[in-house]
Please model this.
Amino acid sequence: MRIAITGGTGFVGRHLAARLDPADTVIVSRRTGIAIDDIDALTAAFTGCDAVVHCAGINREIGGQTFERVHVEGTRAVVEAARRAGVGRIVMLSFLRARPDCGSAYHETKWAAEELIRQSGIEHTVLKAGMIYGPGDHMVDHVTKAVRTWPVFATVGFRERKVRPVPIEDAVDVLLAALQGRLPDSTVAVMGAEELELGEAVRRIARVAQRRPVYIPVPVWTIRALAQLTEWTMVTPLVAKAQARMLAEGVSEAAPSTPEPPPGIRPALPFSEERIRAALPGGRFTIDDLRPTRHARACLRRLRNGPVAVAS
Ligand SMILES: NC(=O)c1ccc[n+]([C@@H]2O[C@H](COP(=O)([O-])OP(=O)(O)OC[C@H]3O[C@@H](n4cnc5c(N)ncnc54)[C@H](OP(=O)(O)O)[C@@H]3O)[C@@H](O)[C@H]2O)c1
Model:
């Protein structure tokens, strides 16, 4: 089976690709020279593929890379290219709480993308996944670096929110089941086996990282302000505005209500210290994580060596 993965250079896409035959896998991302709104390039990439796994997405907007353009126009292009290339199946990775009219552009555009897949006329599965963790993720990575960098950790609000973290192994198992047509439903919720309070998830990660920060509960608006600040200043924000919204409402229930995979395919692994340890990154946040530092270094390089791309 030949498979194209949009977002195949990202966290989930990389782990999925590692479980597939490289000779029969096509990786689509800007880093491999294909933007997901380029229908001709996508059609060429998808030609000869039996299935497309659509993982490309963003969690913050930068310049022209808006949620509308990447999630909605990008998915429209993926569907059109899949149709032109005669692809038989699309599996899309969406977010557990993607839904319309909720006041968050991330959630609303992911929902709009789901609808494009559901209306594509191509056999499909939409996976609405909760927070996925594992080596190279955005969850254990950010919390670990934060507790290694600062002695205090701001927790979201005064009411505990619940999460059901999904180990990347489990998430890839469900993706593979979807590819093989083994899921009975065409829209499926992917949640981890263990439900815990967000604060406990953070404490568990800090314990594994051997740090004991002081936890300070702060109002939700403070986390939103922190998200805006870190989107402006950090290469990969400590928390993006879309993530602040996710944390504020919890990530333990599908919205709208969605069936889970059958037992045997459903995620079964707990958020254990052993699995957190496997996902632990090296290092902490440094000034190299700041966008002005990256720009300054790129400008210096350009002065020394001639023109190079400036990373955002
Ligand atoms: N991680 C989670 O916990 C989680 C949970 C539920 C849903 N999701 C969704 O699942 C998807 C994958 O998540 P992830 O954690 O793997 O994200 P990620 O690590 O940020 O990877 C995103 C991927 O999308 C590609 N991409 C972004 N904009 C693109 C564009 N304009 N054209 C082509 N490729 C583009 C990126 O590659 P380039 O930068 O090279 O283009 C990268 O390969 C996302 O849509 C995310 O919203 C993630």
